Each structure stands twice: as C-alpha cells, then as structure tokens.
From TrEMBL:
Keyword Zinc recorded: yes
Residue ranges of domain Deacetylase sirtuin-type in the record: 1-250
Native organism taxonomy: Bacteria, Bacillati, Actinomycetota, Actinomycetes, Kitasatosporales
UniProt source species: Streptomyces zingiberis
Protein name (record): protein acetyllysine N-acetyltransferase
Keyword NAD: yes
EC number from the UniProt entry: 2.3.1.286
Active-site residues, as the UniProt record annotates them: 119
C-alpha cells in the first residue's frame, strides 16, 4: 500500500481515525453511541435496521421522513475537520478512516481518495436490488414531491441510504484498506471515538502493535488508553487543531493551516 507520501519519503504517514465526537461541533448528534438515539429508542433503531427496513414499507416511509429532517446534509465542517485537511495541504501524508457518514472531512478539503468511510455515506442512496447509486438530495426531492417510498428508477428495487445499517456488514474492501493503513502509519490519531465498536476500534491496537505512535483525543476513557503514547481530554475543536499543528511541525511541513485562510 502506498502511504501517499510520493516524493516525501521522510514524511511520516499520519492516520486520523474519527468518530462521532469530531462532528458534534457541526451540530450532528451521536446517534450510534452508548447514549445515542439508536440505543435509547428501539423503535427509532428499527428505522436503520436492515431486516426491518427491507421487510416493512411503513418502516421505509418513516425512514425517509427521518432523512428529510436529518441535519447531516446541511452541516458544515468545523475547526477539527479543517485542521485535518490543513495538515494534508501542508504536505504531510494523511489518510482519514472515519466511522462517520456525514462527508465533512471531504467538504473540509480532504481528497475523496484519502478518506475511507467505514459506515458508508448519508449523502448517497443505493439500490438494494441492482446497486445503482445516486445523490441523497435527488431522492429526498422525490420524497418532498410526494413519493413516500421512492423506488429505484433503474430496476424498481428498494432504495436505502448508502450507509451501513444495523444488521449489515462493513465493506470488506474498505476495511481491508483501513487495516493496511493502520499497519503502515507512523502516527495513529483516534479522535472523537469510544473505540468500543469492533472491528473498527481494533485498528488502534493494530497500529500500536505495528509501531505507530498512538494518540487518543476523546472526552472519555477508551479500552485502548493503556496503549496510547498520548491522551488528550480537551475539547476536540481546539485540541485537535493544536495537536495537528505540532505533528505538522515535527514532520517538517511547518504549522498546518486550519483551512480558514
């Protein structure tokens, strides 16, 4: 696997593994966490559970109404997302592995090819029959126009958000690439994640086992704290930009811009 440092052989590869905590400053609540909506409300969880979704038209109708009200598509990147993109623009080889489906790393300026979305993307829809994909906004426009459960226009199949629902497995190709990055990186920054959901959380341990400097930026303790070289409990919006500025300087790229200039 290429670490992305073409022509920069002395530059360390930095892997940023992000969870819901990096996006809360953008107004996106933590739906999947221990105190998130899906854990607190089993009925709401059905809306994002594959078996219920595929087998019950009423669940699908309710799911589309939920998507209409979802803040994700209207959210903007915050200082933490901009700092990650700024580090990459400063010339440091960066790969993002994210558990989030909001697309905010890309909106902040990270190249698409350098972002791995373990749980898919809420900005797209996919047909469960033929696999056709399209923008979520286009399908939501159909819902707004009165289609309660819009079918695929290619084959008539059931459309769903291009996210990994409960009851679905992670994409093996994406997970394999994430594993390769964890093994190859020199620095692994886990930010805004409890590191409790496997197999994704195990990437932190794999990185540490392969000699990476493990840095955890999270408000609460995680199962991997004992392996960490550095633990940061400060608010992500200020702590991560400062951390990445230090990493950028140590890598010889100078202070990483925060993306606002």
């Amino acid at each position: 696997m290429s670490g992305g440092g073409e022509g920069r052989g002395r530059q360390p590869l930095v892997a940023v593994f992000s969870g819901a905590g990096i996006s809360t400053d953008s107004g996106i609540p933590d739906y999947r966490g221990p105190a998130g909506l899906w854990r607190r409300d089993p009925e709401a969880q059905k809306l994002v559970t594959y078996g219920y979704y595929m087998g019950d038209p009423e669940i699908r109708r309710r799911s589309w109404q939920m998507r209409r009200k979802n803040r994700t598509l209207h959210a903007e990147p915050n200082a933490a997302h901009r700092a990650v993109a700024g580090l990459e623009r400063a010339g440091v080889p960066v790969r993002v592995i994210t558990q989030n489906v909001d697309g905010l790393h890309q909106r902040a300026g990270m190249p698409e090819r350098k972002v791995l979305e373990l749980h898919g993307s809420a900005r797209s829809v996919v047909c469960t029959g033929c696999g056709d994909r399209g923008p979520m906004r286009d399908t939501l426009a159909r819902v707004e126009a009165g289609e309660e459960d819009p079918p695929c226009r290619q084959c008539g199949g059931i459309l769903k958000s291009a996210t990994v629902m409960f009851g679905e497995s992670l994409d093996t190709a994406v997970l394999s690439e994430a594993l390769a990055i964890a093994k190859a990186c020199e620095v692994f920054v886990a930010v805004g994640t409890s590191l409790q959901v496997q197999p994704a959380a195990g990437l932190a341990g794999i990185a540490a086992d392969h000699g990476a400097r493990l840095i955890i930026v999270n408000a609460e303790p995680t199962p991997y704290d004992a392996l960490a070289d550095e633990i940061v409990r400060e608010p992500i919006g200020t702590a991560l930009p400062e951390l990445l500025r230090r990493l950028g300087g140590a890598a010889g790229g100078g202070p990483a811009p925060d993306g606002r200039g």
